[in-house]
Design goal:
The chain is mainly α and 695 residues long. The chain is 69% helix and 0% strand. Among the domains are: 159 residues, Serine Threonine Protein Phosphatase 5, Tetratricopeptide repeat (Alpha Horseshoe); 65 residues, Serine Threonine Protein Phosphatase 5, Tetratricopeptide repeat (Alpha Horseshoe), CATH 1.25.40; 150 residues, Lysozyme.
């Protein structure tokens, strides 16, 4: 009897264990598969072989990632036609993408066509077609590249996609021998797409520039191309085009030819040629407005201010409504001031302010003139006018305080809530005087959410949620951008995109979408953390140690690149901290950063961690060079320490006067941007703003 009981107990344990493991395996199938997929453990997923729903997608993609394409095709062919596989278009897309990455473009096209036939309105179509076009271009199949790049234009309304497709179209046309058509296309897209930079356009056209011949174009096209080439900085090629068209164009277009030639000579500072051009046109066409304007510019650049003044005044008399009027008034004012004609200078500036009430720069210039001559009543009058410009109000209020020491001006800045350089300075001045200040950011509020029950194309929201859960960021991005384009209520999608790009590591876009959530000047604290994020903070803290405030470095990076690790400026500065390759080489040679044996500095600078190491090392050098003074260190990171040495010798020791007197507008704006960022970071994450000495 005892033995039977033991046998029964053993059987019970065996059955119980089996049930337990069966439940565990079932649980793994239902929940742990997602974790396994995120970790890239595709072998385990395949061994479990789920057969239904979302888990089946994980299984099929795992097969694909392990290059078991035949099994994927077999599984797809066995799918039940009665069932709705909401993820099937993504599987077709991924299959095509997999073939592209493995160099099998023929099979990639088959999968793409399968996607197009089964899901003709899928938002995935423009993306995979664009990838095909790029791959065909890279493999020198230019006709196919052209075909698919044009196809993208029929699929997508997104400017980013269309621009990418048109760039491939340009390159394909060039390689197919259609150089003239390609050049005209690039000229067109340069002016139509503001996101296409001059630097990128130059890189596209530079390899074929020597082959572009004016004779191959109609005269009217040559003028457009001449302006295009001039805007890209190709002065000699611009001259080639102008030399070929002057005799062919009607008199109405001679104005454009003269203007472009004059701009060339001004750029080259070729005053002799400019003088000859003006003399020729005075004889041929008389005192037209463009001839008078560049004649005035010529005399002004030669420091013949009296003669320049006469010419500018004649232009304004003959052509009071000229398109050159604003620049003419400005140049006239400059010339009068250079001559010491202060009365006439002031009269001209007042005319500018009256004639062009939408312009704030002349008001500020006149304020600065009065302030530097200690004519504070007149200076205050200008500040009152400056307050009417919303973007200049904080500036006007702060300088009103600098004149009369009225704390009310500073309090008005703080109450307005607009975080900028002048807000930071107002805050500090009030804080130093013991004024109890409200917190600059509002209390946290619930941020907008997407309501799936009230959106169009809700099936794409289901796809997005699933793809985000398994961290297929690019696929999820395609779905959420599609939803954004199809729904009028945008705020919830902005928040979703902010979170998605943060998780994806696309930090620049993350900040941009958080900015779209801002309403009014005052920002809720939880949104402020998204607008001023702590990306890369642990790495920065290791690099700064106790010497530098890591939030100052974050402020610097936000101003430099907006946390875009792939950013390249028009000057060639690269990466998060926008380091020039020559500067990086110097820092590495000094032993302040490890080059890691990488010979190509550009590759090094596009590595986020290495870029930070080099950038922080260089800023640390500048920090010590200027004795821990904030303004010189920041300015020298932008303009170079040599220039800052000169400014420290010649400019005021008052920090605010120093900031406004920096002769480079780029550096002046850069300093103000970094300081505003530094203030925001300090308040949000440290609860106070106690900056080091400014000067």
């Amino acid at each position: 009897m005892r033995v039977r009981n033991l046998s029964f107990l053993g059987l019970f344990l065996i059955v119980g264990t089996a049930i337990f493991f069966n439940v565990s395996l079932s649980s793994a199938n239902e929940t742990d598969l997602y974790a396994l997929f995120r970790q890239g453990d595709y072998e385990t997923i395949i061994s479990l072989k789920p057969e239904e729903g979302e888990e089946l997608f994980l299984y099929l993609v795992s097969l694909l990632n392990l290059s078991r394409e035949e099994e994927v095709e077999k599984e797809i062919s066995s799918l039940s036609p009665e069932k709705d596989y909401f993820w099937l278009d993504h599987l077709f897309y991924l299959s095509s993408l997999h073939c592209i990455e493995n160099g099998d473009l023929e099979k990639a096209v088959i999968w793409k066509e399968r996607l197009a036939n089964s899901f003709p309105s899928s938002p995935l179509l423009p993306y995979i077609t664009l990838r095909l076009a790029q791959s065909f271009l890279e493999n020198d199949f230019f006709s196919s590249a052209l075909f698919y790049s044009i196809q993208v234009l029929t699929y997508s309304e997104r400017e980013e996609d269309r621009l990418s497709a048109l760039k491939i179209t340009f390159q394909s046309l060039v390689n197919l021998g259609y150089l003239e058509e390609a050049t005209l296309l690039l000229c067109h897209i340069y002016y139509v797409f503001p996101t296409l930079s001059s630097r990128e356009t130059r890189e596209l056209i530079l390899p074929v520039l020597p082959q572009i011949s004016p004779e191959k174009f109609f005269p009217s096209q040559r003028l457009s191309l001449a302006n295009f080439l001039f805007s890209l900085g190709f002065t000699e090629k611009t001259k080639d085009f102008l030399d070929q068209i002057e005799e062919f164009l009607p008199p109405s277009q001679q104005v454009d030819i003269f203007t472009l030639r004059a701009r060339i000579f001004v750029r080259e500072e070729n005053w002799e040629e400019l003088e000859q051009l003006i003399s020729k046109n005075l004889l041929k066409r008389g005192e037209t407005e463009e001839v008078l304007f560049y004649w005035g510019v010529l005399e002004q650049r030669k420091a013949n201010y009296g003669r320049a003044t006469q010419i500018y005044e004649r232009l304004l008399f003959l052509y009071p409504e000229s398109g050159y009027a604003f620049n003419t008034y400005q140049n006239l004012a400059f010339s009068l001031r250079a001559m010491g004609e202060e009365g006439r200078y002031l009269e001209t500036m007042e005319k500018i302010i009256s004639r062009f009430p939408e312009k704030s720069a002349p008001v500020w210039e006149l304020f600065w003139f009065y302030y530097n001559r200690n004519q504070m009543y007149s200076a205050q009058e200008m500040l009152e006018k400056l307050k009417s410009f919303s973007e200049e109000k904080n500036k006007a209020l702060f300088w009103s305080f600098k004149i009369d020491s009225s704390l009310e001006d500073l309090e008005e800045i703080v109450e307005g809530g607009k975080i900028d350089y002048y807000y930071a300075r107002a805050w500090q001045e009030l804080s130093d005087r013991g004024v109890v200040l409200p917190f600059p950011f509002d209390e946290e509020v619930p941020l907008p959410q997407v309501d799936p029950a009230n959106i169009s194309y809700s099936e794409h929201w289901t796809k997005y949620q699933f793809l985000k859960k398994i961290e297929m960021w690019e696929n999820a991005e395609i779905e959420i951008l599609f939803l954004l384009s199809k729904n009028s209520q945008k705020k919830g999608f902005y928040r979703e995109l902010n979170e998605l790009y943060t998780q994806k590591g696309d930090y620049q876009k993350s900040i941009l979408y958080s900015l779209y959530l801002q309403e009014g000047e005052r920002i809720p604290l939880n949104l402020a953390r998204q607008i001023y994020p702590e990306f890369f903070l642990p790495s920065i803290q290791k690099l700064t140690g106790d010497e530098l405030d890591p939030y100052l470095i974050l402020a610097l990076i936000r101003a430099e690149s907006f946390f875009d690790s792939a950013a390249i400026s028009s000057a060639g500065a690269m990466g998060l901290a926008q380091v020039m390759p020559s500067t990086a080489s110097w820092v590495i040679e000094k032993g302040w950063a490890d080059g890691g044996g990488e010979e190509d500095i550009s590759i090094l600078l596009l590595n986020a961690e290495k870029n930070l190491e080099i950038g922080v090392s260089y800023f640390s050098y500048l920090w010590n060079r200027f004795g821990g003074k904030l303004y010189p260190a920041i300015c020298s990171y932008n303009a170079g320490p040599g220039r800052v040495d000169q400014w420290l010798e010649t400019l005021s020791t008052d920090p605010d006067l120093f900031a406004e007197s920096i002769p480079f507008s780029e550096t002046q704006n850069y300093l103000k941007k970094v300081m505003a960022n530094y203030f925001a970071y300090s308040i949000i994450y440290q609860g106070k703003f106690s900056p080091p000495p400014y000067l």
